[in-house]
Amino acid sequence: MYDCFSMNNCYVGYLNHERSHEHNVILLCPGVFSALSCIHAGFSAKLYHIRVMSLFCLFSVRNATFNLGSDVNLTCSNRTWNTTMFVVWNINLTNPPKVCRIAFDFGGPLVDTCRDGKSLQNTSRGQSYLHIPNLSNDDVGIYGCESVYQGGNEVHMINMDITVPPRLSAWLESEGEKMVAVCWAERAKPAANISWSQAGSIVETPLEDGGFFSVESRLELLEGADTENLTCVIDHPYWREQQILQPALKRGRIPWITIITIVSVFVLLGGVLFYVQKKVVMRYYQQSDGSETKTAPTEEMEEVEPYASYVQRVNSLYNSSAVMFT
């Protein structure tokens, strides 16, 4: 079915594919400046797949999502530099907020106010594209591109987002007399989908933090359930295949008071050991000093002992001569 109507001085072609349930909207505008008002009118009417065409401009809006860490090439136009006059990328980043510009004028200097690794490059045919290496959450935002060529120009708005896989963990814990299996998919984009291989009462809690989504799924196991064959299954667009985890028994988290007590005991033991070691060393040095003091007189006695034990001997020959003369 094809309908035509007028909206804010824009001639709109509305094509409805009943089988695919897709809506394509073509806005025919008289010039470049009225194209923006046509796009605004299209958004107001909740027409999201929009393309504006005129004799002078081609305007399109599209969404693009890429995996975290991938290298991305965004194309503004399929025209080559043989007919292109200049290309301008106006980038509005969201995490953190930042506005920058990358532009190239044929025969002129390159303008780059982003300075974060993004660059204008060319294919072997001479077609220009914006290269974004190692895509991260900092690159999420709106990328507006304008390409001016001989005979007209193209303006494209690309809402770019990333796909981030979740960090996964699973465990078993007891709640009173009940056994509960927990499956945790943390900081993903978009949120992950969790399912279980066994039946039971399931409570799922979604959380959002800075544009990232976490999901906790808690399964209350039935009495006599086989925990050895219990698994949780995680689906996410980042992966081509499902991720399967088997929960392991978890005794529970150590409370902070227990951690503080253990640390305090270790510190106290360390202080006691240091004090005892210091006392032993001091006693050793004291004993060494005392032994040196006691042995000093003995050494002096040994030095004078040959003189002290000297016994004067009388020569009997001289004594007998003296007797004879007297």
Automatic annotation (TrEMBL):
Keyword entries, A-Z: Disulfide bond, Glycoprotein, Membrane, Receptor, Transmembrane, Transmembrane helix
Keyword set includes Aminoacyl-tRNA synthetase: no
Localization per record: Membrane
Pfam families cross-referenced by the UniProt entry: C2-set_2, V-set
Residue ranges of domain Ig-like in the record: 30-163, 166-236
PROSITE patterns cross-referenced by the UniProt entry: IG_LIKE
Alphabetical GO biological process terms: regulation of neuroinflammatory response
Keyword Membrane tagged: yes
Transmembrane intervals: 254-276
Topology relative to the membrane: Single-pass membrane protein
A GO MF term: signaling receptor activity
Coarse class of the protein's main subcellular location: membrane
GO cellular component: cell surface; membrane
Similarity comment: family membership: Belongs to the CD200R family.
Protein name per the record: Ig-like domain-containing protein
